[in-house]
Amino acid sequence: MKILLALLLLSPVASLAHSRFDGTWIIDANTMQLPQKPIVYSLAKGMFRGPGWSENLKIKADGNDQKVPETGYWDTMSVRTLDDHTVEIISKKAGKTMFTEVDTVSQDGNSLTQVVKDTTEAQAVTIETLSKRVDERPAGSHVLSGSWRAYKVSRSQNGSIIKYRCTANGFSAETPLGEKYDAKFDGKYYPVEDDPGHPMVSVKRVSPNTIEQTSKHDGKILGVLRLTVAADGETIHATYENKETNTTTSYEMRKQPQ
After folding, report:
1. Where are the beta strands (DSSP E) in the chain?
2. pLDDT (tens digit, 9 = 90+) per residue, 62-116?
3. What is the DSSP-derived secondary structure letter of residue 96?
4. CA 138 → CA 40, 44, 91, 231, 236, distances in Å?
5. What is the DSSP string of 150-178?
6. pLDDT tens, 5-41?
7. Taking the domains of the chain in order of start, what are their residue ranges?
8. Of the N and C termini of the chain, which has fewer Cβ atoms inside 10 Å?
C-alpha cells in the first residue's frame, strides 16, 4: 500500500548545477502500466487470507484486531464483512490505524473497487484501485475470493506530488506530507525521514539522463527504480521492479509550473 509513495520518493538526480530534474512533479495516473500478475484473496468459513500471505497465515473475519507478522507499517489487522459484496480491512501499528481498506465487488462479481485510506502521515492519502476478475471464485466463498488483475490506480493529489532538488554531490526529495530524504552519490543508504516504515535509499547514476535507485528495509532489498528524464525536461519515465512480489510497474511523471 505504500508502494506508490516509495516510487515518488525514489527520484532522479543529475550532475548539472541546475538539473532538469529540479522542481515539482506529479504522477500521471493515466500512464501507469500495472503488473499482470493477479492478486489472490480468500474469504471463506469466517477466515481471510490476503495477497502475498503464506498458506498457513489466515485471520478470522470477525472485525477484531489480530496479530500478524510485524512490518514497518502494521502489527495487527482486522477483517469484517460489511455485506455480501463488501469487506473492510484495517491495519494498525501499536494501536494506531495506519490503513483502512474497503473492497467492493460489483453485483455481477466481475469487478473489484478497492479504496485505501492511508493515515500513516499527518494528512490522509486515498488510493483507489480497479480490478477485473480472472478466475471463478471457489464455491461457498465470499464474492471477494479469487484472483484479480488491477488495471487502474488513482491517488489523491497530496500522495502524487514530490519536489526534487539536485546538486553535484547529491539529491534531496520532499513530499507535501513531510516525507523526505537527502542522499549522496556514494552508494551508501540514506534514511527516508518521517516514514513510519523507516526505509533506506541508495542512488546510482547510470547516465546523465538516467538513474537507478534501490530501496531496502531491515537489510532486505524492496525494489529498484529506474528513471529517465526526457530531453525537454518536462517528463520522467519510471520503471519500478518490486523485488518482494517480482512485478514491474511503469508510469510517467510530469513537471508542474513553477
Report:
1. 23-33, 39-44, 47-49, 59-60, 66-67, 76-83, 86-93, 96-105, 111-118, 125-133, 146-155, 161-166, 170-174, 180-184, 190-191, 200-207, 210-217, 220-229, 235-242, 247-255
2. 999 999 998 889 999 999 999 999 999 999 999 999 999 999 999 999 999 999 9
3. E
4. 12, 9, 26, 51, 42
5. EEEEEE-GGGTEEEEEE-SSEEEEE-TTS
6. 455 554 433 334 578 888 899 999 999 999 999 999 9
7. 3-34+160-255, 39-157
8. C
